[in-house]
Every structure is written in structure tokens, then in C-alpha cells.
Amino acid sequence: HAHVIRITRGVLHVWDRARCTVYREQRRATMRNHTATHLLHEILRSVLGDHVKQAGSLVSPERLRFDFTHFSGLEDSEISEIETRLTGKVLENLPVVTKIMSIEEAMESGATALFGEKYGETVRVVSVPEFSSELCGGTHCNATGDIGSFVIVSEGSVASGIRRIEAFTGKEAFHYLKEKANELKMIHELLRTDRAYARIEKLLNDVKASERELESIKSKTAARDSSSILEQMRKVDGIPVLSQRVDGLEQKDLRVLADNIRDRMGSGVICVASSKNGQASILTMVTKDLTDRFHAGEILKQVSALAGGRGGGKAEMAQGGTNDMEKLDKALESVYDIVKRMMPGGSS
Fold first, then answer.
1. Among 127, 139, 124, which Cα is nearest to 95's?
2. 313 DSSP β-pair partners
3. Residue 284 in contact with residue 300, Cβ under 8 Å?
4. What is the CA angle 95-97-98, rounded to 5?
5. What is d(CA 112, CA 131) in angstroms, rounded to the nearest whole number?
6. Which of 312, 268, 261, 265 is nearest to 288 (CA)?
7. What's the burial of 103, exposed, middle or buried (CB within 10 Å: 0-12/13-18/19+)?
8. SS3 171
9. 311 contacts 321 by C-beta, under 8 angstroms
10. Under 8 Å CB-to-CB from 240, ≥6 apart: which residues?
11. Three-class SS of residue 143?
């Protein structure tokens, strides 16, 4: 063991005697998490299958982290079963036994060794009789009941074929569960009902219905707006060109408006922009029959640059933006000249 110390008074010499004191609460918390890790390892194998192998772990006073081999994410029912089984072992208050023996004896006894670890001729075996047995040099509880509470707080992937569980024990588990209970209580008070799940489900369904209704209204509005905007269309050497600013629209709504204009226009070049919250979205479209002559992405690059912004895209559709509102109108007016320059014989 190596102890790192900070000298606050006096001088330390070689061969000086020192009295070391373990932080009791931190050590006990670490013990709870470590013993719970051993139980968790064995329970994972029984719930998920013998293919489960430890792939890494962290034991601290605050939490435990356990990485293991498994091919898919855990179902809620599997996580619940793992917590239930481990809690059962805690309630049984089984003894945790440590023995020093030769590596041969340990292997013959069925103790689990970690793949890739190097062991000496003599090893320490930590076991819960008739349940789990592992080679381990760490600190542990005297009995499983010392673990107290156990709760899994997260489960996820860390690499291909490797899953990770993080969990709390003892006081940390109690505080975590208490916090969740308080959150649920506040939800009940906010919703003014004891049937929070049903109430939230209804609210979410109402929100989805409202969103669908709003999208329908937006589509109808876009169709109506596109009709009035089309009256501003000009022809540049016979090519229909429309460049307009319609403020207050989100980028996705601007796309809906442009789609409506394109469908009504049939053939032509479109540039629409919308300012909202100090940021302007710009969108250009070229109908398919004209993409061999005009490129929406190239048009947008020039318009965005004149507006002090940036953007780009494909031949049929491109998007960009700017936060310089003063330059936006002049940039939109330039679309007609840009289209004219792109025509055969036009000056670039």
C-alpha cells in the first residue's frame, strides 16, 4: 500500500513512525459498493446468461460502476429483476467470507478470476457462501446486509458488446430514492392529482393533437400566403423569378412556404427569407426543369454573402442564414441580377 500525505507541521524522516487513520464513513461506503459489485456480477450472469463477463469496474464511496459483456440493452423488466434479486441477498444478510489460498486451490474451488489480470501464487478469495466467489484484494462488508439499499441509476452502452451499469448503495441510494419521491410528490401537486401517469399521458396526447392542428393551420396559411406572394413574381428574360421576405417563420415553415410557391409556380427560381429573433433564414429553390441552367446552391451562396451570412446546398434547394438584418432586403433584391448573370451570355 502507498499512502500519499501532506505535511502541515514538522518534518518527516525515513523510519519515522506514523499513525494512519481510515476515514470510517468513506471506507464503509466503499465496502458497500464493492460487495454489491460482486453480488451484481453473479446476478447478471443468472439473469442474462453465462456469457456475461466483467469488462471493467469502478468502486468509490459515492457509487459503483460495472462494465460487462452483453449483446443488447437491458429491458426495464431485467433491470427490475436484477435490483429485486440483489435486494433479496441484502435482506438475507449473508456472511461475506475472505480466505487466503493458493491460486490452484482458488481455481479448484470455483472462484471467478478476471480475464487479463495477473495473479501471484497466493490469492485472496472473497465469497458469499453458496452464491458467489471471486479473487479480490479489495475491502468488503462483513455481511450482505451491510449494503443497505441498492438502486440502479443508469444502464447503457460504452463500446460494441459492452454495457455499463451505475448504481448507488447505502446512504447514496436512500438520498437518490428520496429525491425521486420528492420529484413525484411535486408532480402530483403540480397536476393536482394522485394519478400523475394518466394525467401526463392525457396532456401529451393533447399536445400532439394541438401540434397536428397547428401544422394543418400553417399549411393552409402557407398556401394562402403563396398565392399573394406569387403576385410579386417577375420574369427575367422569360424565366419566372420570385424573391420575397416573409418575417416570423421558423426554417421548417419557410420550407413549406417555398414548396407551395414552387408547386404553384410550376417553373422558375425562388428565393424566400424570414427574420425571427434577430436571425434570418434564407432558402432558394430551382424547379427541376431549370437545374441544368441555374443552381440553387450557387444562388444562395451569392445571396447569403451579400446579406453578411453563409449557406449552400444542392441544385434544386439550398438553405442559409444571416444575423445582419440591414443587408437582407438588398441581398434579396439582388436575386434577379444573379439569375440574369447565370444565363448564357450573362456577365459573371
1. 127
2. 318
3. yes
4. 160
5. 12
6. 268
7. middle
8. helix
9. yes
10. 233, 234, 265, 267, 268, 269
11. strand
Residue 226: predicted pLDDT: 65
Three-state DSSP at 91 gives helix
The pair phi, psi for residue 166, each rounded to 5°, is -120, 140
Angle between the 335-342 and 325-333 helix axes, to the nearest 10 degrees? 40
Residue type for 86, please? L
**pLDDT on residue 232:** 83
Distance between alpha carbon 223 and the CA centroid of its chain, in Å?
37
Q: 302 with 331: CB under 8 angstroms?
A: no
Give the residue among 293, 228, 301, 237 at the shortest CA–CA distance from 271: 301
The Cα–Cα gap between 248 and 318 comes to 20
Q: Where are the alpha helices (DSSP H) in 113-195?
A: 170-191
Q: What type of residue sits at position 343?
A: M
Q: Tell me which residue has cell 421558423.
A: 250
Through-space distance between the first and last CA atoms of the chain, rounded to whole angstroms = 77
Cβ neighbors of 66 (< 8 A, separation 6 or more) are: 37, 40, 41, 44, 54, 56, 57, 164, 165, 166, 167
Strand partners, 285: 270, 317
Q: How many CB atoms lie within 10 A of CB 86?
A: 23
Q: Give the Cα-Cα-Cα angle 310, 266, 238 (nearest 5 degrees).
A: 80
Output the CA–CA distances (angstroms, integers) from residue 181 to 184, 185, 186, in the order listed.
Answer: 5, 6, 9
pLDDT in tens, the chain (348 residues): 677 888 899 998 999 988 888 899 999 999 999 999 999 999 999 999 999 999 999 999 999 999 999 999 999 999 999 999 999 999 999 999 999 999 999 998 888 887 667 888 999 999 999 999 999 999 999 999 999 999 999 999 999 999 999 999 999 999 999 999 999 999 988 888 888 888 888 889 989 888 877 766 666 665 566 667 887 889 999 999 999 898 888 888 888 888 988 988 889 999 999 988 889 999 999 999 999 999 999 999 999 999 999 888 999 999 999 988 889 999 999 999 999 999 876 654
Q: Tell me, what DSSP letter sits at residue 234?
A: E
**Predicted structure pTM score:** 0.62
Q: Which residues lie closer than 8 Å to 124 by C-beta, 6 or more apart?
A: 98, 99, 100, 135, 136, 137
